[in-house]
Amino acid sequence: MTYKVFIDGAHGTTGLKIHEYLKDRADIEILPIDESKRKDLDERVRMTEKADVSILCLPDQASRELAQAVPAGVRLIDTSTAHRTDPGWVYGLPELTRGQREKIRAAERVANPGCHATGFITLIRPLVEAGLLPKDALLDAFCVTGYSGGGKKMIQNHERADKPEYLKTPGQYGLTQTHKHLPEMRAMTGLTQAPCFSPIVGDFFSGMVMTVPLHAAQLTRQAGPADILAVYREHYAGERMIHVRTGLPEDGFIHSDIMAGKDDLEILVAGNEERLLLISRFDNLGKGASGAAVQNLNLMLGIEETKGLMEGKNAD
């Protein structure tokens, strides 16, 4: 069987990557829109009506505009920030909690997670669900990411021959603590407060590492790295796109681009009985964006969830 997919906003970084995932699949027909009409709302609505699932790779306002215009029964995946905490949309992280995968399969509207949010939520949600981390915990988080997450303009700035020297060094941003991923980072973990979050962009194309430092005193009971790993292993048992690693790299470094080009996510725990580091490592364009959209698309079409995706090794 061949399924019809419309990508609205296929010229952006996320849309281009999704097109790359789908273009050679025999079970997918990508519906092209007339270039002269790709900003015509009526034409875009007609395209969504022809498709089995449409993927929106648009700015927030444009996504809201199209989502409001399409009739009931039209199935959408939105990769923007617009609908991630909207109760009328299903959050597109199948591994979030028990039953989330089934909600995605049945949904008309799925909100693809943000990349930073994916890294944070996969670390914190299991601990909150297990009662090990209180919902009112005040957390810090920092994330080092490749520049592709910043879109075309940032990519062009980092890849131009005459780029300024400062772009060759890591740059911290989100300084006002109003990063657009914070609402979902709070809502999808069950926390009452968003974390104090420091995103950092590096001079490499893709890959990211999210780190949440914890003092053992922040937990509801005494727990060290082995105890935290046990919670993760139970929560993610059987998952093919999230792998819980027991060991740490031999060189003692967590490099940010190790997962570049892959579609799964690694979880690691470092530290000791007093101070812990919760770490997730993945590709901001893979599990953090386009790969996640394809995973959700597969679920909504009722086919193999990881079809067309690059899986890593099983958890060790």
Write the layout of secondary structure elements.
Layout: E1 3-8, H1 13-22, E2 28-30, H2 41-50, E3 53-56, H3 60-69, E4 76-78, E5 90-91, H4 100-106, E6 109-111, H5 115-129, E7 140-145, H6 151-159, E8 171-172, H7 182-187, E9 196-201, E10 208-215, H8 225-235, E11 242-244, E12 265-271, E13 275-282, H9 286-301
Parallel strand pairs: 1-2, 1-3, 3-4, 4-6, 5-6, 7-9, 11-12
Antiparallel strand pairs: 7-10, 8-9, 10-13, 12-13
Helix pairs in contact: 1-9, 4-9
Task: Characterise the protein shown here.
The structure is a single chain. The protein is an alpha/beta fold and 316 residues long. It has two domains: 3-113 and 289-301, Rossmann fold, CATH 3.40.50; 115-284, Dihydrodipicolinate Reductase, domain 2 (2-Layer Sandwich), CATH 3.30.360.10. Helices cover 30% and strands 19% of the residues. The chain contains nine helices and 13 strands. The strands form two sheets. A seven-stranded mixed beta sheet has the order 8-9-7-10-13-12-11. Helix 1 (13-22) packs across helix 9 (286-301) and helix 4 packs across helix 9 (286-301). It starts with a strand and ends in a 15-residue tail after the last helix.
Characterize this entry briefly:
The chain is 30% helix and 19% strand. The chain has two domains: 124 residues, NAD(P)-binding Rossmann-like Domain (Rossmann fold), CATH 3.40.50.720; 170 residues, Dihydrodipicolinate Reductase, domain 2.
Shape: globular
Strands ordered across the widest β-sheet: 8-9-7-10-13-12-11
The tally of helices reads 9
CATH superfamily of the largest domain: Dihydrodipicolinate Reductase, domain 2
Q: How far apart are the termini? A: 36 Å
Low-confidence stretches: none
Q: Measured on Cα atoms, how large is the radius of gyration?
A: 19 Å
Instruction: Provide the CATH topology of the largest domain.
Output: Dihydrodipicolinate Reductase, domain 2
Backbone structural class: alpha/beta
Whole-number mean pLDDT: 95
What fraction of the residues are assigned to beta strands by DSSP?
15-25%
What is the CATH architecture assignment of the largest domain? 2-Layer Sandwich
Number of strands: 13
How are helices and strands ordered from N to C?
EHEHEHEEHEHEHEHEEHEEEH
Instruction: List the domain count as a whole number.
Output: 2
The largest sheet is:
7 strands, mixed
- CATH class categorisation of the largest domain: Alpha Beta
Helix percent reads 25-40%
